[in-house]
Amino acid sequence: MSADLHLPIGIFDSGLGGLTVARAVHRLMPREDLVYLGDTARVPYGNKSPATVVRFACEDMQFLMNHGVKAVVVACNTVSAWALPTLEQRFQVPVFGVILPGARAALAATRSGRIGVIATNATIRSQAYNKAILARDDTVRIIARACPLLVPLVEEGWMDHPVAVSVLREYLSPLLKWDIDTLVLGCTHYPVLKKAIREVAGPRVRLVDSADTCAEFVKERLGYLKLLDTRRRRAGVIESFVTDEVERFEDFAERFLGEKIVPARKVELPSV
Ligand code: DGL
Questions:
Q1: Which of 194, 210, 226 is the last residue in one of the domains?
Q2: Catalytic site residue from 58, 76, 147, 214
Q3: Which atom of ligand 1 lies closest to the CA of 47?
Q4: DSSP, residue by residue, 174-194
Q5: Which of 16, 54, 78 to mutate to test the pocket of ligand 1 (most atoms within 8 A of CB)?
Q6: Each residue of 113-123: pLDDT tens digit?
Q7: 206 and 106 in one domain?
Q8: Are 184 and 205 in contact (CB under 8 A)?
């Protein structure tokens, strides 16, 4: 049996949106310890250049490695889109991103083969979802759109605000006109907008939530790698770290998770 299996799973994101992934992982693997890092001092990554995203990702990853994690989940779509190959190459633990599980779930969900993808500017620019989906099935058609206003709306707590619905109508109208039957929510923040997205997209469009699909993928891969702690009797502990002040963390965490969690600690990231 691998000694590593008792170590925590690391999860990081550009900010706190990745808590949706942490929650999904915790629900699915309740006995696993988790170490969460949100780079709140430098969020958002979604409008940064690829080189900057990769550099930040390496620093986030190194922080988690210093905490002795057995595997790392990249909750951030933007990082998953640009930095995964570099992280896999530079660090000696399994690294899981959100793009591949999202692509698989989209293909499983679609009936008509018309898939919409919404994400940050950087993720759309990378075409990571298009490539991952088309590599598995080149008969489907994909329409992708960057929705840069959605992250600030969520950060502002305007998930149920009429402005959120208007902005979504604007962003989603070309996708809906094109008659998509599946919509990939390709950003950590979008799952908390699900209610408004459903209202705009209607009941016929299936929503692929990167948090849930990623958690299932991680469980499957950790099981395969014999890295799941199946013998632990106690509940897993979630330790959280942020790079900016912790004051807003609890508020945010509650908004993203719908529940209270243990307060975060502020940390400096190692330079790599
Ligand atoms: N975490 C980012 C993502 O999933 C959204 C926030 C940001 O732009 O940093 O792409």
A1: 210
A2: 76
A3: 8
A4: HHHHTT-SEEEEESTTGGGGH
A5: 78
A6: 999 999 999 99
A7: yes
A8: no
